Each structure stands twice: as C-alpha cells, then as structure tokens.
Amino acid sequence: MITIIAGTNRKDSNTKKVTEAYQQLLLHKNIDSKILKLEDVEVQQRNVAFVTMEKDFLLAAEKIIIVMPEYNGSFPGILKLMIDNTDVKNVWPGKKILLAGVSTGRAGNLRGMEHLTGVLLYLKANVHHNRLPISIVHTLLNKDGIVSDEVTIASINTQLDEFLLF
C-alpha cells in the first residue's frame, strides 16, 4: 500500500487536487493507495488519534508520496510538525519516499523539495531521485479542479512508473 500525503492543512487546496491525480493514476495501475490529508489530522500533539493515523497511514505504507505546496520558499510547517511528532525511529528509516512540489509560481517548489529531502535523509528515509516540480498549477486544472494538462499527467505517470520500481 502507498500513502499519499497532501502536505498542507488548507482546505480545497491545489495540493489536494494534485494528490488526487496521483491516486487516480495509481488506481489505473492497479496500485492500492490512501490519501492522508493533513487538514483532517491534529498534528500538534502525539495523542491517540495521531498514533492511530501514524499506524494506519505511515507505518502501514510500503512507500510514501508527499505532494507539498511552496510556503515561503520551503515546505509547510504543518508537514514538518507532523514529521516531528511521528515515532521517527520507526516510521522513516528505510521508507521509500517520492516528492512532488506544487506552486503557482514557476519553480514548482524546488527549494521546498530540497529542504524536505535533507530532513528525510537525516531520518534515514530513501528519497527517489525524480522529484517533480509542478509549476503554475492553477493553469493545469480544468473547471472541475482536476489535473487535465497532458504533459503534467505524462510527467506524473513517468515519475510513478519509476517509483514503483524503486
């Protein structure tokens, strides 16, 4: 099972829309996945609900995909807080991680993916080399908020094919 983390707690975000595109493409490949929406999780303290989320979404996952927006030239603090409150000695070592950055600008959160890569490597996770920057994301969505840009879908598909072999 693959967990896809929507790396923001903002409601109705473009990040969540891209996360859903990843899930749909995995479904077409007959790969089981679950989406972890940080907007649905209280990550500020390690309580019973957090431990349950950790067990169901992070420890249970063979691999993790993190889709994250650019916040102030990096990745969201809510994502860092979630990582910090996990059982870092059991959740992250050896876990295979795929990253996608989302932004309305032209860099697709390259810096944020680089920052998060450093954190994940410190935690002994294995980060896949193909980190996908998704730029000007608002122009890639159709009127229903679905990723419809063929080049972006092809890039995500290539990234997923590589990650499945990783």
What does this structure look like?
The chain is an alpha/beta fold and 166 residues long. The chain has one domain (2-165): Flavodoxin domain (Rossmann fold). 42% of the residues lie in helices and 17% in strands. The protein has six helices and six strands, in the order E-H-E-H-E-H-H-E-H-E-E-H. It has helices at residues 14-28, 48-59, 77-85, 88-91, 110-122, 150-165, and strands spanning 2-6, 33-37, 63-69, 96-102, 126-127, 132-134. Strands 1, 2, 3, 4, 5 and 6 form a six-stranded parallel β-sheet that branches. Helix 1 crosses helix 6 (150-165). The longest helix has 16 residues, at 150-165. The mean pLDDT is 95.
* Secondary structure: helix percent: 40-55%
**How would you characterize the largest beta sheet?**
6 strands, parallel
CATH architecture group name = 3-Layer(aba) Sandwich
N to C succession of SSEs: EHEHEHHEHEEH
Rg on CA atoms, Å: 15 Å
Say what the CATH topology is. Rossmann fold
Measured by DSSP, the beta-strand proportion falls in 15-25%
Question: Domains counted in the coordinates: how many?
Answer: 1
Note the gap between the termini: 14 Å
Tally of helical runs:
6
What is the mean predicted local confidence, pLDDT?
A: 95
Shape by Cα distribution:
globular
Number of strands: 6
Which regions contain 5 or more consecutive residues with pLDDT less than 50? none
CATH superfamily: Flavodoxin domain
Q: Provide the structure class.
A: alpha/beta
Specify the CATH class.
Alpha Beta
